Amino acid sequence: MKCCRFIVVALMSLLITLASVEAAGECGRMPINQAAASLSPCLPATKNPRGKVPPVCCAKVGALIRTNPRCLCAVMLSPLAKKAGINPGIAIGVPKRCNIRNRPAGKRCGRYIVP
């Protein structure tokens, strides 16, 4: 009987661990909608390639690139971004327009390449 309890507890622990690993997506444990909301100051810059990028946007983008560059790509290609009217072809250039040096230049983000 003790053996069965041990196996049940071990299996439950394994399932909980797997569920938490699976829950961590492109933005880690931060939900993609929360990551997208943090980039809301960038919204005007993602619609106009010649528009000025606000300094607060550059700070947020720079922080996200330092901590999780894949998250930035996931946000730009998310259904929420599409719903907000973000043009991924323009949004992909925001890090360059912010003069962020450690941006993942040359890396792919969907069908786009980071300039």
UniProtKB/TrEMBL annotation:
What protein name is recorded for this chain?
Bifunctional inhibitor/plant lipid transfer protein/seed storage helical domain-containing protein
Q: What start and end residues bound the annotated signal peptide?
A: 1-23
InterPro entries in alphabetical order: Bifun_inhib/LTP/seed_sf (IPR036312), Bifunc_inhib/LTP/seed_store (IPR016140), DIR1-like (IPR039265), Plant_nsLTP (IPR000528)
Tell me the protein family, please.
Answer: Belongs to the plant LTP family.
Q: Which domain of life is it from?
A: Eukaryota
Q: Any coiled-coil ranges, and where? A: none
**What terms describe the molecular function in GO for this protein?**
fatty acid binding
Q: Where is the Bifunctional inhibitor/plant lipid transfer protein/seed storage helical domain?
A: 27-109
**One Pfam family named in its UniProt record:** LTP_2
Q: Which is a GO BP term held by this UniProt record?
A: lipid transport
Could you list this entry's UniProt keywords, alphabetically sorted.
Answer: Signal
Lineage of the organism: Eukaryota, Viridiplantae, Streptophyta, Embryophyta, Tracheophyta
Q: Which organism is it from?
A: Arabidopsis arenosa (Sand rock-cress)
